[in-house]
Amino acid sequence: MMLAFAQLRSRWSGFVGSFVVIVLGVALVTTTLLVIIASEAKVPDRLADTPIVVTQRPTATLTGSTGARQPWENSVGERLASDLQGVDGVDSAIVDRSFYAQVVKDGKPIGDDEDTTAGHGWSSTKLAPYRLTTGTAPDGPHDVVVDDSLGIGVDDTVGLLTASGERAVTVTGTVDGPGVYVSESMAERLSPGAAAIGLTLDRGTSSEAVASDVDDIAGSADVLTGQQRSALESPSLAKIRAQGGQLLSAMALLGAFVSVFVVASTFAFDVARRRRELALLRVIGATPRQIRGMILGEAAVTGVIGSIVGAVVGVIGGPPVGALLKHLELTDPALHVQPAFVPIGVAVIMGVVVALAGAASAGQRASRVVPMKALRSAQVESRGTTRAMAVLGSIALAVGVVFAVITVMTEANRQLVLGLVTAMILTVAAALLAPFLIVPAVKFLSWPVRRCRGAATMLVRSEILNAPRRAGSIAAPIILTIGFATLISALAPTISTAYPAGVTAALSGQKIVQPVGTPGLSEPLVQDITRGTDQHVAALYTQLFVDDPSMPGEANTIVDAQGRLAPSDHTSDGLVVQQQLADQFGWATGDSVRVGFVDGTSEHLPITKIIETSTAQPPVSLSRSIVRSHDRSTMTDDLFIAAQDAPDDAGPRAESQDAKTFADREYADDARLFEQFSTILLILAVGYSALSVANTIGMAAHARRGDLAVLRGAGGTIKQIVGLISAETFLIGLIGALLGLTATMPPLAAIAAGLEQTTGVPVSIQLDWATFVPVTVGTLALATAAAATITHRSLRNA
Q1: Full set of structural domains in the chain with CATH
Q2: What is the C-alpha to C-alpha distance for residues 538 and 623, in angstroms, rounded to an integer?
């Protein structure tokens, strides 16, 4: 370790690149972990004053993940609330109901999020708590209380939109919180299922003291206290957090990978240029274990110092990154990032591990240096790559191909991360095999000019062919830069052309009616638009709770379903089930299935038909009337109607579009998010890689001072030698760029093939030349400039 400290003190400039990369990597991981922890699910504001919430247990989805909770039937929920009211320490037990309700003022619907368009019974205000600021509580079927921020006064008459249409209501009061509140009898009519029961406690009573008694009465239900109540956050907020989490995960993965890559290449190159020094240490008695320990000690010291500095930078960068995610609408608007010991500690440990992992291979190679090499006056690389590198490179290539195949078959929302992983593996393969691949590439590219006059061409060609490992080290970061830049920049245009094209092709000959200012089309509006035509489809989306065959008698699996209005799809009182779901549950035509609904009731319905599996619609279809009778808040998202039957004017609450316009608008938000993803990841990838390129080129040029002195002594001018090194670096960089582009093609092709399967239309790779060309030119210019600058400085100081 003392020798490692001595080496760092005397040769600190050789470790600057690794140090900076570790600082940036740890800073990125620290920031990412702090933001992820800060963006964890939180207790909904409207349950903030509810110490205990009792709900049904969550059901499982078809993929095995946790799904929604089925409400109790109203009478069951009321009876359970009455029982819980009698528990010692419980002040009140309130049945909480939620349903779609949107205020219409001056003919315009108000609100565009779940909070402002959610209706509740008046008693639910006690759970927040929200207080009356003016007026009185609602009492009759035409009374409402609204958020005081809407600027609506008491006794004003406004419209109230629900799934069953619009009606006039009177504002009896306002509260200091979001939502629309109606009388309990009206809430029960609009949402007959009891989603949850909130318990308020007597003053001075702790939730822990009451929870066990509540649990005894609740039976199989969940009794949620403290942070457990965050399980009841809104689905839309959970989706936003998931999208932000994907970006943060990709950032952390990219940062960790590039850090390991750069540290490994830096130490490998450093060991290669210190072979004579290491051999001399062996001659004077250093054991292989001591040599290996010295290299790892250098990495450990660099990693510890860099990690501490990086953690500080990451803590400082946490709030700005959180603010950026809020601006991009990729996290909770109430996100507050603050320092936390655990994520900072994890990031610091990761930084040290990254440094040691990057130096491990170099340390092992250093311990095998032959002492007699210290006595040689000249050294020539005998092979372009070691056997171990060739084997590891071949294995990485094979694994990358396997991951590319997996990417083709995976779900579309996972293809981004899998594509990045595939590109990382293939980039490693290209870097490991680069010394072997560079030799034939140089011979091919230099063949047309081999017979040119002058020594420059011969020298450039010979320098690369006689030192392929050095050339491979120079090419490695360029492979990384071009590979990631190509992959990330091509993803957005490839995906952006695939999905709209698929939707447009599927909806050819139709027009689509979409809601304006509301989350869906109300039932009366759908009936008005479709009156007199049978060439239409209007789905009511809902969720069903069905029995898992392995656990009969319990509705324990949630299944997405749709109620269809198209006459050709009417199935009487039965179910139309996709083949994949039928196979999974062992269902056959004619079977009777117990189906639970979102109002807490259940029915036995026959399977009338099994159809081919399609990702374009939910796995179960049933009568629209059945869905409407059980799910009174569901609305029609989109109404598909034959173009010749579509109305020219769908009214103020809807608009009609052709298939292409609909497809472009549907994908607009996803395209925006994906472009933001791509931009952030591209900046990270290119920034990291540019640092690696400059670091590696600088080390390579600095290590060649002896060779440069020989050329200078042979009569070469500074200008000639700088030109020679620049040309050599440019040629190596060009080969690295081609290898990086080649390594990117399999994951891009895999993603395109997966999109083609999903959309049903031909999908080809869409390279973003506006990004690829500048990044490639800039990388080659950076590498050439770094080599020329350091070479010129070395010659001037010689």
Answers
A1: 1-42+233-369 (no CATH), 45-231 (no CATH), 396-506+661-797 (no CATH), 522-636 (2.40.40)
A2: 12
**787 and 725 Cβ atoms separated by less than 8 Å:** yes
Give the predicted TM-score (pTM) of the model: 0.71
Task: Write phi, then psi, for 119 (nearest 5 degrees).
Answer: -105, 150
Q: Is 701 exposed, middle or buried (0-12, 13-18, 19+ CB in 10 A)?
A: buried
| CA distance linking residue 609 with residue 284, whole number of Å | 84
In this structure, which long-range contacts are made by residues 380-383, counting pairs with CB atoms below 8 Å and at least 24 apart in sequence? 380/466, 381/466, 381/467, 381/468, 381/469, 381/470, 383/468
How many residues are recorded in the chain?
Answer: 798
Name the pairing type of β-strands 592-596 and 536-547: antiparallel
CB contact set of 450 (below 8 Å; sequence gap of 6+): 457, 458, 461
Strands 636-642 and 222-225: unpaired
Structure tokens at 13: 């400039």
CA 769 – CA 79 distance, rounded (Å): 66
> What separation in angstroms does the CA of 131 have from each of 135, 136, 148?
11, 11, 10
639: left (phi over 0), alpha (psi -120 to 50) or beta: beta
Tens-place pLDDT, residues 190-227: 887 888 999 999 888 888 888 888 988 988 889 999 88
Question: Which three-class secondary structure state does DSSP give residue 608?
Answer: strand
Cβ contact 678:491 at 8 Å: yes
Cα 379-385-387 angle, rounded to 5 deg: 115
Q: Give the three-state DSSP class for 561.
A: strand
Helix ranges, 328-450 (H): 341-366, 387-409, 415-446
Q: At what angle do helices 456-466 and 415-446 cross, to 10 degrees?
A: 130
Respond yes or no on whether the N-terminal peptide bond of residue 58 is cis (omega within 30° of 0). Answer: no
Please state, in angstroms and rounded to a whole number, the distance separating the CA atoms of residues 654 and 160.
Answer: 17
**Residue 752 amino acid letter:** A
Under a CB-based contact definition with an 8 Å cutoff, are residues 118 and 97 in contact?
Answer: no
d(CA 99, CA 188): 10
b/e 481-519 (16+ beta carbons within 10 angstroms → b): bbbbbbbbbbbbbbbbbbbbbbbbeebeebbbbbbebbb
Question: Hunting for tokens 């996972």 — which residue is that?
Answer: 414
Spatial distance between the Cα atoms of 56 and 107, rounded to a whole number of angstroms: 39
How far apart (Å, rounded) are the C-alpha atoms in residues 791 and 725? 8
Residues of the chain whose pLDDT is less than 70?
A: 1-17, 63-65, 258, 261-262, 265-274, 369-370, 372-386, 388, 411-413, 416, 446-457, 549-555, 565-572, 615-616, 688-689, 698-708, 797-798
Say if residues 484 and 680 touch (Cβ distance below 8 Å).
no
Residues 6+ positions from 88 with CB-CB distance below 8 Å? 210, 213
**355 touches 306 (CB < 8 A):** yes
Q: How far apart are CA 295 and CA 18, in angstroms?
A: 13
Q: Which amino acid is at 503?
A: V
Rounded Cα–Cα distance for residues 254 and 264 (Å): 15
- Residue 406 carries which side chain, given as an amino acid letter? I
**DSSP-derived pairing of the beta strands 52-55 and 575-578:** unpaired
Both ends of the chain: CA-CA distance in Å? 32
Instruction: Give residue 658's Cα distance to chain centre.
Output: 31
pLDDT digits (tens, 9 = 90+) for 751-761: 888 777 777 77
> 477 near 262, Cβ under 8 Å?
yes
Helix (H, G, I), strand (E, B) or coil at 575: strand
Six-digit token string for 249: 């995960």
Burial of 318 (0-12, 13-18, 19+ CB in 10 A): buried
Other CB atoms within 10 Å distance of the CB of residue 341: 7
